[in-house]
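Re: protoporphyrin IX containing FE structure - here you go.
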Amino acid sequence: MSATAETRQGPAGAALGPLARPTRTAMRWAVRHGLPAVYLSRSARRGDPVGRLMRDRALREQPYETYEQVRARGPLSPSSLGWVTTAHPVAQEVLRSEQFGVGWDRSAAPKVIRWALEFGDDPGAAGVAEPPSMLVVDPPDHTRFRRLVSRAFTPRATAAFEPAIRRTADALLDDLERREATVDLIGTYAAQLPVLVIAELLGVPTERREDFLRWGAAAAATLDPGLPLRRYLAAERALRAMHGFLDEHFARLRRDPGEDLVSRLVTLPPEEALTDRELHATVLLLLGAGFETTVNLLGNAVVLLDAHRDQWDGLRADPAGWDGAVEEVLRLDSPVQLTGRTAKADVQLGGRTVRAGTRVTLLLGAANRDPDVFPDPSRFDVTRANAREHLAFSGGIHYCVGAGLARLEGVVGLRALSERFPELRVAGTPERRDLQTLRGFERLPVTLR
Ligand code: HEM
């Protein structure tokens, strides 16, 4: 790790000395995960379905029945995570409304929590769900960050990436040809394709991809509340390594900029330039979001299509159907299952009054199965006419900036796989990742021929 990352300053300007760091880490874990874990476990014991989803791994692996129990309580119901909704129109309204934001008012928190958050703050270990990551900041900062990155994701810029995606997929499939008949499709293909694509987009050396995958897998858990200490420590180590890598990467691109997005971000004119912390947050998010989600789309798709073999065969016969198939996978088994917003003022929503400062949890994976929007919602049908109405990429101002790229990787990656290995079958039991916010597979054994 670089010296810069080791000594990066805290908000109060205090260098993170060797003794302060473990104390800060413990503080960060306690307020972000330890206390929420106790609270969620207590709610789960009292029968709160959301608390149970968060605390019970078996339920998390198969969340859809629990989502129906939440749905039965109405479009908006109280839960251990504030208000919760499974209703597509309510979730969409919240995402699009200016009366909701992603930030929350720390001044409303008890003094001890505010102090712990301030003391535990450590930019060298910051994750993608911590400000100033654009995912969790409101305008005007959000507008500033988003404008800087969205130029790299216009439809034209995304389409220009198609040959590179195809080339990358083909090279990975060539490697697979040389392997045994049974492989783990996540490790050999579904994770490799997105990480190679985002590495190219961000100008980072593809030789480091195994490092990114390892770091990303550990750090993805920080999106979830209530992590056990051991997993939190692993995530923090991974985040420090990523920030250290980014320091070196930024220094290299400042000396020798290329045509990529990060080169542009590190050489912005002074009036537009990002602070060091903003730059780290923005690129860390792009890197992590770029592969930690798309891997799940590819893996979930293969498992669904294996279970619906007629549809796999239909797509092979008519590849024009892949666009619809990708939308249906995103809808039925969404790679991002939930998000949340905080009311900025008292708001009328779903027949209830949501008070200012209150959190609303949006179960995107459940909204995508709202029977009022998607008839027979648990049926997998790659020809479903309105599958694209799903909220798998969220909505409103935080709508996924990489949605076009993810769709393209899905269509190109799955089509290439089906053409090269038409007889591919899932072999054995796929293993889910132990995550709450993201949904996908850790291991997916398949026979290729
Ligand atoms: C199947 C793949 C993907 C899925 C399901 C997905 C899903 C999402 C969702 C749900 C959000 C918004 C969360 C919220 O509203 O709180 C989001 C935001 C974001 N995604 Fe994606 N994503 C995917 C792929 C990508 C890719 C390939 C990139 C590329 C670089 C990317 C970059 C981002 C960024 C930067 C944001 C933050 C946008 C903002 O806050 O304005 N995502 N994504």
